[in-house]
Design a protein that fits this description.
By secondary structure, this protein is of the alpha/beta class. The chain folds into two domains: 166 residues, Rossmann fold (3-Layer(aba) Sandwich); 135 residues, Rossmann fold. Helices cover 38% and strands 15% of the residues. The chain is built from twelve helices and twelve strands. The longest helix has 23 residues.
């Protein structure tokens, strides 16, 4: 399946489930379904909310440029940036997370209704939903850079360009794409140094997980569930499939391409060792509806029988942001514990 078709399928999924918009998330939960304290860990937030290094004060530079900067975005457009952007509008939660991690929080003047990380973003002016961007609100903020996403819809991106706005549209599909887009935004905004450091952090953590995976005695079959009615799972050619593989597992639904609807019988046939579900209420119900559904409805599956159903923050595992490496580390810990239990 081509990149465009996979993106169209993913867009349909996020519109149904609220994956990338953040609707699925409902606070922070640990992988056993318990609530985490509402605090930022050192590797998540720098002193200014940069997300690059714990306790490190990352500043936002504004260098004088000798001439225009040219970058090519994920839509294939060559975007010309004539001066360092001072007023940035973000049209996706993942974009917002990256911009703040680059130290650009003070230059972000508008975000979507679903942008909720880091905490200070909640006070930024809103420009509508992820797939329902309010063009008038964007224009009213007079941005010199708009960072869009595929889920905004190509028509929205084209309209913004027709109004003369500078738009960079992102559509990362894997960790390499996320790191490339971080570097792209760093170059576009004059924050190349912070972008290099953020990518370096990701590469270091990915490398550490890969080393851990080399020591595993068993490679468990892992299923990732995004929603339960109908049951949506992550197949191959998704960034979640990539995370499972890097962490040392095998995606139980790797034979399916993209995000797919499956049945309980499909779960029984594959009988995964581990089930990972997104946190949150989704479209209604108790706090971790997917966890409770899996335990209740998949009782004959090995993962449920052995108590290996885990919850990961939906915003962390389902947004193509630098925080994917934190989901990767959680998966690595889960898989390592499984392998140790089998080898012991």
């Amino acid at each position: 399946m081509g990149k465009l078709n996979r993106s169209l399928l993913f867009l349909s999924v996020i519109l149904i489930l609220g994956i990338a918009t953040g609707c699925a998330g409902n606070g922070s939960v640990d992988r056993f379904g318990g609530e985490k304290p509402n605090v930022s860990t050192p590797h998540e937030l720098g002193q200014n909310g940069s997300g690059i290094s714990g306790g490190e004060n990352v500043t936002s530079g504004n260098p004088e440029r000798p001439g225009p900067i040219r970058v090519r975005d994920d839509f294939g457009y060559e975007v010309v940036i004539n001066k360092t952007p001072e007023r940035i509008v973000s049209l996706a939660p993942s974009n917002t997370e990256i911009l703040f991690a680059l130290g650009l929080g003070d230059r972000v003047v508008g975000v979507t209704d679903y942008c909720n990380y880091p905490e200070e973003v909640k006070n930024k002016p809103k420009v509508g939903g992820y797939s329902t961007v309010n063009i008038e609100r964007v224009l009213a903020l007079n941005p010199d850079l708009v960072v869009a996403a595929y889920g905004n819809g190509k028509e929205t991106v084209e309209i913004l360009r027709e109004y003369g706005l500078t738009v960079i549209a992102l559509n990362p599909e894997n960790l390499s794409d996320v790191m490339r887009d971080i570097e792209l935004l760093g170059r576009a905004t004059g924050e190349e140094e912070n972008a290099t450091r953020l990518v370096g952090m990701m590469e270091q953590r990915i490398g550490e997980v890969k080393k851990e995976a080399l020591n595993l005695s068993f490679r468990p079959k892992v299923a990732h569930v995004l929603w339960h009615d109908p049951i949506w799972v992550s197949g191959r050619d998704t960034f979640i499939d990539e995370l499972i593989e890097i962490a040392g597992g095998e995606n139980a639904f790797h034979d399916l391409e993209g995000w797919k609807i499956v049945s309980i019988e499909d779960f029984l046939a594959r009988n995964p060792d581990i089930i990972v579900v997104n946190s949150g209420t989704g479209m209604g119900g108790s706090k971790d509806i997917l966890y409770e559904w899996a335990v209740r409805e998949l009782g004959d599956v090995k993962a449920v029988r052995e108590g290996r159903v885990y919850v990961i923050d939906a915003d962390v595992i389902s947004r193509p942001s630098y925080r994917l490496v934190y989901a990767l580390e959680e998966l690595s810990e889960i898989i390592s514990e499984f392998s140790s239990s089998k080898s012991g």
